[in-house]
């Protein structure tokens, strides 16, 4: 029952959810694009929670790879994204599908031209080619699981404003 | 933004989590094996929640297909299982991996010969070939998301007692 590399199930094990956010021993990962808020610090690897450090400001978007990934034989990847207050993911589209389940907080998803409010347990199925963006207009963190095929196309960014944003896909 | 068949993202859409459990318009599915408690009613398709009917007893294990499935091009399936008080899934093993995230309640997972307590947000990575079983010793429902490859082997059941149980895989 030892720890395995991120995403890999060489041996079965339980990974505890941490009270502060994140999972025990699972690093927060850097993003594809620039930080999603002007006042957010640069994002590096190896963070264990959604804060840059003790007392530091919350990062705008934090990403964890929970299962699958380059070292895995799985055909899927299970990721978790957490958006701080005011944060948003890239406005983007791609051919691969997303299956999203909200784990924490309240937020919004832009699907095509429609905005939908989201709360805990809500499911979002994002079809191939659909422009989408996740946003957190609330004061609390907004977190969701997102499942994708391991073998997938790269997103096309659609940002039509100057707001910096973080990609939901790795860079 | 219309409804699509279970698991299929023909058009993007949001599926609301219901207060009573389950997701709006997503049917609870029948199980592979016999009911997982002696007093549980037979399980049929088309149930919209984890109860057989208004005022009926809770079903021992209920399963929802949230994304992927036969009609989908996705390489994964995202399922949700909810165990009533005292319920358990089959004791089984298979070559494909499970990635599990607890969504609701408290329960246990047997991994090999070790039992691990589980609570909301905890992640379980089940490696190929690992004997496993999920159990709910508590008085409240215990629910978890489970991601698997769409193309996967069938489980081998390992039940070593007479306790009836439900398979985590479709029959």
- End-to-end C-alpha gap of chain A: 32 Å
- Based on CA atoms alone, the radius of gyration of chain A comes out at 15 Å
Outline type of chain A: globular
Low-confidence stretches of chain A: 33-57
Write a structural description:
Chain A has 171 residues and is mainly β. In chain A, 0% of the residues lie in helices and 33% in strands. In chain A, the strands form three sheets. The first copy, chain A, has a six-stranded antiparallel sheet with strand order 2-3-4-11-6-9, with no helix packed on it. Chain A has a three-stranded antiparallel sheet with strand order 8-7-10, with no helix packed on it. A two-stranded antiparallel sheet of chain A has the order 5-12. Chain A is globular. Strand 9 of chain A pairs antiparallel with strand 1 of chain B, so a sheet runs across the interface.
Please name the defining characteristics of this protein:
homodimer; 171 residues; mainly beta; 6-stranded antiparallel β-sheet; 3-stranded antiparallel β-sheet; 0% helix
How does the SSE layout of this entry go?
The structure is a homodimer of 171-residue chains.
Chain A: E1 13-15, E2 28-29, E3 61-67, E4 76-83, E5 92-93, E6 98-104, E7 107-111, E8 114-118, E9 123-126, E10 132-135, E11 142-149, E12 156-157
Antiparallel strand pairs in A: 2-3, 3-4, 4-11, 5-12, 6-9, 6-11, 7-8, 7-10
């Amino acid at each position: 029952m030892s720890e395995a590399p991120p995403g890999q199930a060489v041996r079965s094990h339980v990974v505890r959810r941490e009270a502060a956010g994140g999972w025990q021993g699972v690093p927060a990962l850097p993003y594809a694009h620039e930080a999603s808020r002007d006042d957010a610090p640069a994002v590096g690897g190896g963070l264990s929670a959604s804060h840059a450090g003790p007392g530091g400001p919350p990062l705008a978007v934090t990403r964890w790879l929970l299962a699958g990934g380059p070292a895995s034989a799985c055909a899927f990847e299970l990721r978790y994204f957490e958006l701080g207050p005011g944060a948003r993911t890239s406005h983007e589209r791609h051919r691969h599908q997303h299956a999203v389940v909200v784990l924490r907080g309240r937020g919004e998803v832009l699907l095509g031209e429609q905005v939908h409010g989201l709360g805990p347990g809500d499911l979002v199925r994002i079809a191939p080619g659909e422009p989408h963006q996740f946003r957190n207009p609330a004061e609390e963190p907004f977190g969701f699981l997102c499942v994708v095929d391991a073998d997938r196309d790269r997103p096309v960014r659609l940002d039509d404003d100057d707001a910096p944003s973080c990609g939901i896909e790795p860079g």
